[in-house]
Design brief:
Radius of gyration: 20 Å
Distance between the termini: 61 Å
Number of helices: 2
Number of strands: 6
Oligomer: single chain
Shape: elongated
Strand order of the largest sheet: 5-3-4-6
Strand content: 15-25%
Length: 140
């Protein structure tokens, strides 16, 4: 086992690094690069690691961190911005048309990260029990 002061120093360094990452305005905590107005981004008014807003890029290498942060921030209120806590299924209906279902009645769409997703063919089952059909493009 390392000495107690080594463990304390390691924890303090990690906490300091986390605080700095999430408290630098205009910098994405995932990649530590500046967020410009030309890039897609998302801001969270609640900062779990410090003060002020937290802004993530929505590009591929930062999106996973932004989704994880979204889940952590909205765990209590359920008002997720990038994720859906439901299980998602996509496939083809009995007419061969693309269809999506989710266990959350207020799912915000197939482009969100879901707890689980599957592809299946629904020709034999037009609507799985417990799933809600997502509106198709043009429907409302």
């Amino acid at each position: 086992m390392p000495c107690q002061h080594v463990v304390i120093d390691t924890i303090a360094k990690h906490s300091s690094d986390t605080f700095e990452r999430f408290n630098t305005p205009g910098v994405c905590p995932a990649c530590r690069e500046p967020v410009t107005s030309r890039q897609q981004s998302i801001s969270f008014s609640r900062n779990l690691h410090g003060f002020g807003t937290v802004t993530f890029h929505l590009r591929k290498k930062c999106r996973h961190s932004a989704c994880d942060y979204d889940v952590a921030v909205h765990e209590e209120d359920g008002d997720y911005q990038l994720t859906c806590p439901g299980t998602f299924r996509s496939g083809l209906d009995e007419n061969g048309m693309p269809v999506t279902y989710c266990t959350q009645p207020d799912c915000r769409g197939a482009d969100r990260r879901h707890r689980r997703d599957e592809f299946w063919t629904a020709a034999y089952l037009p609507r799985p029990d417990g799933y809600h059909r997502s509106p198709e493009v043009g429907e409302s």
